[in-house]
Predict the structure.
Amino acid sequence: MEKINRKTIVCNYAEYPGECERLELWGKRGQNVYPRIEVLKGLFGEINKRLIDFIEIATYVYCADQLVIRCQDRVDPHGFIWRREITMVIAVQDIDFWSSPETVKTLEHLLRFLSDDLFIFKFVPLAESHPEQLYFKFKDFHKTICKPEQVILFSGGLDSLGGAIQELICDGKQTVLVRHKSISKHKERHEYIEHTLQQQSGNKATFITIRTGKDSAISNEYTQRCRSFLYFALAGTIADLLGLNNVRFYENGPISINLPISQQVIGGRATRTTHPQTLSYFQKLISLITEREFTVDNPFIEKTKSQVVQLIVNNECANLISKSMSCAHAWQQTKEQAHCGICSQCIDRRVSIIAADAQQYDSESDYKVDFFTEAVDRESDYFDAENINLLTSYFLRSKRIGSSEYTYLDFEKDYPAINDALFYMGKAPDVAARNIFRLYKNLASDIGIVEKHATSEAFIQRMRDIDKPISTDSLAGILTRGIRKVKEEVLERPTKEADYLFRHCGDFWEFRYAGGDKKLLINCEGAGYLSKLFEAPGTFFDFSDFICANNQQEATIDADELNSGFQYASVPQDAIDNKTKKECFAKISQLRNEFEKASSENNNVDAAAIEHEIEITEKYLKQTLKPGGKARNLNRDSKRVADKFRRNLNTIIARIENYDIEFAAHLKESITIGKSPAYNPQVPIKWEVRVLVNK
Amino acid sequence: MGHTRIGRLNRSMAWKEVIGLFCAGADFDQIAQATLKAASEGFNEKRLSEDAGYQKAVWLLVQMGIAGQSGDFIKHMCNCGIELSNNPSKQELNARLAAAVEDAAWDGGMKSDLAEFARQALSNAVTSAVEKNKEGELPNMPHKEDIDVFRKFGSKADFAHINQVFASEIMSRGLLSYLTQLLPNMVGRENRVLSTHELNHAYNSIEQHCYETGIVQKDYANEWMGKHQYKLNDMSDARIVKHGNFLVKKMIKALKYGKD
């Protein structure tokens, strides 16, 4: 059984005797997390202990999520190390509330769904009082601002920008926008958006910024599936302090539900940051904490991203599109290029902007890689590739869904992951399921527009550009694939295949045994041996027949050896015979006696000569005998060849066994290796072994 | 937000063989065999049999059969922890089943990818059985309620069909979870894969192959149902576990060595 990816994280100086990692928000002893939360003086009431605990728990979860590595830089085909078991031991002020079974269960289920990890919470009473004002930054509240009516999360991406416009401009609400600032290199963009929104809405926006600094040793895992939990905790706290009972996430429907782009995307590998079920857990948790009815919703759940872009354009905020940032690969961003261009968010962003016909408001130069024309995976082979996989799967999914023959039933079968959302959409499950289908159909039609764009006349002009040729690993390359080379070659195939077939065919071998299904084998040495054996059943071969026949043999015997008269000896010869061996040992024994005698007589000259002779004899024995005393084989090359023949033959039989047990059993039974390999079937078989030729 | 993690496979000979076979145009039964072999460390009979999520899915599968025979589908399912409304739709049933398997998978320690395949396969089995029973219904004409179809899950034919779809879906989802880590990488590379159409065809063919191979399950489940027809009500958990283990054993064997 594989090892579980398990870690215990102890926080707030809680007592814990075992092996663990520690996270602390305060105190000189071990502070390694440095949150900074803006609080509006005069607008907020006093923050109660339970809410302070909530913010601290969320911050610790956010950091723990980044501390424990999943499968970063490791190959994890079976998902063994993707999921983690994280035990959080946290000291809290309101121990009765946090350790109640309902709270613990809600927290654990929420994080389990959100992150695909097993979170186990153990709460202990806080031993030392701590100064929470250390991480609250008190900011003056402008009296001109009316009391906020809505709290929304504002990430700075297109969706949350659309949400801000919806609240501030369309609905004209006084809105608090809670945002996380992690990268200072985009300060100018943030300020531009803030300034424009204030201007367009008549100063109805109040921005509250949170930062979560931490020691570099904590930032190990970049997937950050739990980050929305921290943002939500802060937004929920702020809403409660403002006396509001609603928090809004703005995320387009397809990203919120985030159905897998391919079968390998299992569970939380597709984020559930704003999934309807996640929001429902958030709602339950904040209602428990505040002890009043709270709602957490996503008004864009039935919109596609292109519809959100349309909303931005229609409200005369198109100039903000180029300033918004959607990229997930923060480490690849620069001041000039805020988007990597190849992560799923960047692909989504470009697709939606083009589908909404708003590309004139977005700058192509803002993307590090233009996935339409440039290779998305540079200098990597098919095992490393990720971006081409993402791009291909993304477009393939939409092609499938977008097809006119693709029905709701197909959708239901292809995406059982919708089941996770059905109870949380505020509608009957069957209605919700059909709404999700319609949403994805709309997305597919958006992507269809992008495909047309990629093959439009303007684009074809770009494809003809000699100076900057389009890469085959780009979207245009994928969508306009030429004919595969192998298809150009017309293979001359017999109309009726033989019942017993084993032949070389390009890079692979075809075989069929006793009229069964035809199978393929990838080229390997053993296949060549088999072919030769089948060519002449009943013939006793010499190992050298296979070596000389197969040019692809590794340098078991090189050309020089063959030219210089290498004789393939089928009978191994010993390097020393028994008689000589005995004589050598007797000679050494005699020489030792003579050496002792010469030494006792102080005859140094004779002693040195005898010693020299002993050394020579011993060296000879060492060369000719194995450590155990048995004679070495003189013609090791021949043994090497025979061993290799056996090994390769066994390998090919084992591979055949994977596909055709009967054939493998027949081979085991009919091929004798010994000193002269031969194929002797009990019943004569005529094999078709002629190589398939190209016309 | 909206991040998707794409995995990758190791560079073993076994995976290279899968790529080679695909590029050489081998039949999909052989590609499935090669994939099963290459993935055997994580996707095998033993792991599936020991997986809490898989076992729960099989248990619910059998319970649906029993509920169908009991005369009160909703009540029996409620006794099994699946609370349904008075007139549940297949979406409602699927969502409840999915949540139950999810809970069992986590309660069994650490959830696995296999549990997710079982969860999805169970949903597909229900969807497919409902679709099969509603075949031929004309639009805008009176049609059967989903609950009426659920009541038929206790019949030999429906139980066998559900078992077939369940087993074949687990296999195809498992195999495709690996192949989708591999094949899309080759589109546009060294002419290995012609286009997204070829890729789509490959996925569909694997699904179809698994479904056809799953015919062995249909026969087996039919016999099993026949054998236990009158004992279904007092079916022990151990017997259901045995049924689940045999189901997966038979399916893997059929994929490896052919359904004949």
Chain A touches chain B through 93 residues (CB under 8 Å). The mean pLDDT of chain A is 86.
